[in-house]
Every structure is written in C-alpha cells, then in structure tokens.
Design brief:
single chain; mainly alpha; Butyryl-CoA Dehydrogenase, subunit A, domain 3; two-stranded antiparallel sheet; two-stranded antiparallel ribbon; 14 helices; about 45% helix; EC 1.7.2.2; nitrite reductase (cytochrome; ammonia-forming); iron; heme; heme binding
C-alpha cells in the first residue's frame, strides 16, 4: 500500500502492510506512528511476507506487531506463554482486529482493556471519551468498527472446539508424499475438501448450503438493523433544529443512536457475515435494533408527539416524527 485517503496521513496506516514495519518501529520508536505516511512509505519495498508471522531462524510462529503484545499485557496475559495452537490464531490477530489510533501520538492500540466483546469495546470507548468521526447530518460523535474478525470468532463454535484461524483458512494440503500448510489465506469455501470435510462428513454441497443459510439470516438481521438506524438518523436530522424539541431528550436519543450504530457496524465490518459466531452476530444486531427503536421513541418524546406503530415493511420508509 502506497496511498491512503486519510488527510493528513500517518505512517501508522502502514503497520500491517510490510515486513519492514517491525524493524522500522524498533528504529524510530513510537515516533513511527505519527510520522508522515509518504516519507515512511517511500522506505518500504516489501509487502507482507513470511517474517510477519515466522521467526526466520527456525520458522516458529512469532508476534511482530507491538499492539497485540501490549493489549495482552493490559489484560494481564503473557502472550509468550500461549500454546502453538493459539499462536496459529494470534498471528492473524496482529491485524484482523478492531483498533484505534491514540489521539495525540497516533499509536496503534487495540481497545480490549475491558474485553473483546462489542459491548466491552464500546464501554471502553465511552470511558476514554473516544470517537472516530462526526456524523455529517446529525453532528453525532461516532465510533467506527474495523474488521473485528478475531473478536467475533471468540466464543464461536469453532474457536470453542479448539480450532485456530489457520485450521480453516490455511488447511493442510497433500501433494504426493508431501504435506504442508496452505498459505493461500482465503475463504474456506474455496478449498472445502481440505478445510471442512476433515471434520464435517456431510459433503461439500450440504456444508456450503449451511454456510449460506447462516449468512443469509445474519444479512437479513443486518439489513433490519440498518433500516432501524437510518430512520433514527432521519428523525434526528429533522428534530435537531426544532426550537420546540426537548434538547436533553434529543441528546439521549443521540447517545442511543451512537451505540445502536456501533453494534450494526461491528457485524457489518467483520469479514464473515456472522459465520464465525452466528449467535454473537445475531444478538449484537438485536441489540442494535432495540437501541435504535428506543432512540426513535426518544426523538418522538422530545418533540412531544406519539411514536407511530408501523409494520416492518412500512418502517423502511418511516417518516421522521414532526412537531404538531
């Protein structure tokens, strides 16, 4: 990666993009993170590669990115004492996680101080008063989720059974008398015989149908949560400049919508459409819908009008409440 749309752009955006980053951090210290993107990118000639996950001396797995190691330290865990099987997931968790940049230093940090569930990560962001962006229409300070793949997998059926990311995404391949780990890090659906049928004996087509069924249910819930959040945003925009609106109640509605959108975004930003942990995905989206509905009711309350009760289909085009 040599370009980014961020303005100004900082070197922190390169952290998961080159094998040269770990040594650059050693050389520059924390000043690396806030250094100008273009200046540091100009020194990078290699993309990600073997040494990001493997020790060149003996090819053992290793952690090369400080943010993951520091997150474990804050949680009271020693990442150097985990099992080899756990390492087959943690080398992925160096990058495939939720993160944020510290405000002044731009240092990369994983917000796991309270835990890795979306509720715990949100509570942490509230505690430190963090926001990623400001909504252009509502003016609400929002938090943005970034591919929380490791976090979503935690507690899922495969993780609970002791499987690692590599077991499904980098399965063993046999060619003649040679057995090796695939480094085509892609969807297991692209190599189901090696990735899935080792444990699941029902056949590829039945397994694929099960995956799509699960993802379709999550997508339906994701869309419902999206519509619920969209109608609240529309209502907030209509109400925010209304002089008759109860501002305290509107602020409460804003807080509810901020949290509701976070839970929608958590599932939307993950790269599995809920498959890593369907129960967590659906419960998270349910929470988003409930909070969005509560926020909509609070907007109506702020305007002193009753909240209309509409069907799910009608809610998609639900008008914003108006002060009568």
């Amino acid at each position: 990666m040599t370009k980014t749309g961020r303005k100004p752009a900082f070197a922190v955006c390169l952290t998961c993009k080159s094998t040269q980053v770990p040594q650059t951090i050693v050389n520059m210290g924390d000043a690396y993170y806030s250094a100008p993107f273009k200046e540091v990118a100009a020194t990078m000639t290699e993309s990600i590669g073997c040494s990001d996950c493997h020790n060149p001396a003996d090819m053992s797995l290793r952690i090369t990115r400080p943010a993951l190691r520091e997150a474990f330290q804050r949680m009271g865990k020693d990442i150097d004492k985990v099992s080899h099987q756990e390492m087959r997931t943690l080398v992925c968790a160096q990058c495939h996680v939720e993160y944020y940049f510290e405000k002044d230093t731009k240092k990369l940090r994983f917000p796991w101080d309270k835990g890795t569930d979306p509720e715990q990560v949100y509570a942490y962001s509230q505690e430190i008063g963090f926001s990623d962006w400001t909504h252009a229409d509502t003016g609400n300070a929002m938090v943005k989720a970034q591919h929380p793949d490791y976090e979503m997998s935690m507690g899922g059926v495969h993780q609970t059974a002791g499987l690692s990311c590599a077991d499904c995404h980098m399965p063993f391949i046999v060619e003649g008398n040679v057995k090796y780990t695939s480094h085509w890090m892609t969807s297991p659906l692209k190599h189901m015989e090696e990735a899935c049928t080792v444990c699941h004996r029902r056949g590829v087509e039945e397994l694929k149908a099960r995956v799509f069924y699960t993802q379709d249910r999550v997508k339906e819930a994701l869309d419902r949560a999206g519509w619920a959040n969209a109608k609240v945003i529309k209502a907030l925009v209509a109400a925010k400049n209304n002089p008759r609106a109860d501002q305290a109640k509107l602020q409460r509605a804003m807080a509810l919508q901020r949290e509701a959108q976070w839970y929608w975004d958590w599932v939307s930003a993950a790269n599995d459409m809920g498959f890593h942990n369907p129960q967590k995905a659906l419960s998270t989206l349910s929470k988003s819908i409930d909070l969005a509905q509560e926020a909509y009711a609070k907007v109506a309350e702020a305007l002193g009008v009753p909240e209309p009760q509409l069907s799910r289909e009608e809610a998609k085009e639900r008008p914003a409440p108006q002060n009568q």
